[in-house]
């Protein structure tokens, strides 16, 4: 299969953002769009490769940029400083997410009527917020994401299907937060699944994650199992 990519520019006020669209140039007509929302370091190689992976499954992939064109960090402290303003302003985060979805959905290779979002770490919180605020997405996937609900009220009901992939030993999201999320999703009437992986820490799908003292570690078995669940969920949700 041929996979091509191109940058997609969009703006939030004075901030220029650059997503990356991945698509099959030989596809007949637009395909369902899977938006990939980045971790706290920004849109990097991992998210772009994931977007291409979704093309191989028959979708169009779109690696979202929330920070701004060229803004990327591998330093934990700097990455946290990039993420924190969005955690403090969830309405502003939602605005930027909606702009990203609009930009990706407007591309001719994307079927704007069939959109899902898959987010990693900080992006997992973003994916959940898309469902919480009633974005026009058929489904969302949070992969080793953060669960904190926004302080401002979202929608009382969640229409999007929800899949959560969680490492049970993730120190950033202890088990009580998992149960709280289940209660939240149930109260909102969501069609939800939460998959917990034992002996698994944060960032378990990232082969470069190797800092167990911080609770961050790649786990090959959980990565493989979670990917199968994501593939099944997307085919069910977008077909």
Q: Could you give the order of strands across the largest sheet?
A: 1-2-4-3-5-6-7-8
Largest sheet: 8 strands, mixed
Please indicate the count of domains. Answer: 1
Level-2 CATH architecture: 3-Layer(aba) Sandwich
Outline the low-pLDDT stretches.
none
Number of strands: 10
Beta-strand share of residues = 25-35%
H and E string: EEEHEHHEHEEHEEEH
Query: Structural class of the helix and strand makeup?
Result: alpha/beta
The fold-level CATH name is Rossmann fold
CATH superfamily: Alpha/Beta hydrolase fold, catalytic domain
Could you say which overall geometry the principal axes of the C-alpha atoms support? globular
CATH class: Alpha Beta
Mean of the pLDDT scores? 97
Keywords:
single chain, 239 residues, alpha/beta, Rossmann fold, eight-stranded mixed sheet, two-stranded antiparallel sheet
Protein model, in words:
The protein is an alpha/beta fold and 239 residues long. The protein has one domain (4-238): Alpha/Beta hydrolase fold, catalytic domain (Rossmann fold), CATH 3.40.50.1820. Helix content is 35%, strand content 26%. The protein has helices at 45-56, 76-88, 90-105, 122-132, 175-187, 220-238; strands spanning 4-12, 15-23, 31-37, 60-63, 110-120, 139-143, 161-167, 192-197, 210-211, 216-217. An 8-stranded mixed β-sheet has the order 1-2-4-3-5-6-7-8, sandwiched between helices. The longest helix has 19 residues, at 220-238. The two termini are 20 Å apart.
